[in-house]
Design brief:
It contains twelve helices and 14 strands. The chain is an alpha/beta fold and about 400 residues long. Among the domains are: about 100 residues, Nucleic acid-binding proteins (OB fold (Dihydrolipoamide Acetyltransferase, E2P)), CATH 2.40.50; about 150 residues, Rossmann fold; about 40 residues, no CATH class. It is elongated and about 160 Å long. The mean pLDDT is about 85.
């Protein structure tokens, strides 16, 4: 039997599951509109929608959390498993399943600053892609005709770079592309300027990309992935010059050359005119010295030749040559006789060897050579002929033509 619940007529309200979950949802939303929670991220999942789902946990418990796409735009770093964070959130629930979860609106790492963490994450990512490899670095031109500058149009850095390059190499053409170097829109303007130089002014020999000093936040545009990839894609060699000597940005790693300051970048971009002129003058002096020494050497040799006995009396040179020719001519017959005697001796030896194998020697001992006519094949066996065949027998002196009358075969 099924037991029936005996509910009083004035008893408590009966909730459906949906109503209960909705009540819990409203209670959570009202009771915990904003709170800060510290914990470790795990099971971080980024969905195609742009929303990031994760678990926030500590040693004793865990809770589900979500970071919606709109709030994720404000993060400098990428959430990842194992990262300890402090989140600002509101407590809510998913009515359909009754799951309690945190709706995160802000997040910051607890062990490192958000910018430092973002810096390390992007640096590791791009290094794995090979964007920092030395093999892809382009050399700077020795004597640039046109230099481009991507920086703020109002900062002292621009004035310093133009002043240094104009003083060092007055012949250079300087093209300035003013951009925002910090704040909203800076990364878009910097990357667009680099791309415009490559597209519209490809004859530019080198690009200087940077700004003056500032805090990590001020320099952050040069740590943005958009800017770094624009530098990596540039066909024009790029010198990064961001901040002071101790400041380091990801743009420094991907650029073809890193300069510690904007002024130093200007010095790297163009040569020093006075130094080049000094080198040319030094080269000219060394060349003149070398030519003079060479001429003195030739003059000495000419003077020595002028006093040589042969040139003092040219006939003596011919007389010496005539004597030498006569001497050789006198030795020629004896030399030829020795050679002919040696050749004759060798020839006789070869003839003796040849004569030893001559068939005439065999014929001289009473043997004969029989050939079947008309093909003149040598006969070695009586079975090779038949009665009526014609044969020729060669003797030591002369030959006989015969006709076979009878054939006798030797029994084996």
């Amino acid at each position: 039997m099924t037991e029936q619940l005996d509910l009083p007529k004035t008893g408590p309200r009966i909730y459906s599951v949906t109503e209960l979950n909705e009540q819990v949802h409203e209670l959570l939303e009202v009771s915990f509109p904003t709170l800060w929670v510290e914990g470790e991220l795990s099971n971080v999942r980024l969905y195609p929608s742009g929303h990031t789902y994760m678990t926030l946990k500590d040693e004793g418990a865990q809770i589900q959390a979500v970071l919606f796409k709109g709030d994720a735009f404000g993060l400098r770093f990428k959430p990842q498993d194992g990262l300890k964070v402090l989140v600002r959130a509101r407590l809510s629930s998913y009515v359909k399943r009754g799951d309690v979860q945190l709706i995160i609106s802000a997040m910051e790492p607890r062990e490192k600053g958000a910018l430092q963490l973002a810096f390390e994450q992007l640096k590791a990512k791009l290094a794995a892609e090979g964007l920092f490899d030395e093999a892809r670095k382009k050399p700077l031109p020795a004597f640039p005709r046109q230099v481009g500058i991507v920086t703020s149009g109002q900062g002292a850095a621009l004035h310093d770079m133009v002043t240094v390059m104009t003083r060092r190499w007055p012949e250079v053409d300087i093209l300035v592309y003013p951009v925002k170097v910090q704040g909203e829109g800076a990364k878009e303007e910097i990357s667009a300027a680099i791309a415009d130089f490559n597209r519209s002014l490809p004859e530019t020999d080198v690009l200087l990309v940077g700004r003056g000093g500032g805090s990590l936040e001020d320099l952050w545009a040069f740590n943005e992935e958009l800017v770094v990839r624009a530098i990596a894609a540039s066909r024009i060699p790029v010198i990064s010059c961001v901040g002071h000597e101790t400041d380091v940005t990801i743009a420094d790693f991907v650029a073809d050359v890193r300069a510690p300051t904007p002024s130093a970048a200007a010095e790297l971009a163009v040569p020093e005119r006075r130094e080049i002129l000094a080198r040319v003058a030094d080269g000219r002096r060394r060349l003149e010295t070398s030519v003079r020494e060479r001429l003195r050497g030739l003059e000495t040799r000419l003077d020595q030749a002028r006093h040589h006995p042969f040139l003092q009396s040219p006939r003596r040179m011919y007389e010496e040559r005539i004597k030498r020719v006569d001497e050789l001519f006198g030795r020629l017959p004896e030399c030829l006789r020795r050679r002919l005697a040696h050749a004759e001796k060798d020839l006789r030896l070869q003839l003796e060897k040849f004569d030893a194998f001559s068939p005439l020697r065999v014929l001289g001992r009473g043997y004969a050579i029989a050939e079947k006519l008309p093909e003149r094949s040598i006969l070695r066996n009586a079975a090779d002929v038949s009665p009526g065949d014609r044969i020729e027998i060669r003797l030591l002196r002369g030959k006989l033509e015969c006709e076979v009358k009878e054939v006798e075969h030797e029994e084996r």
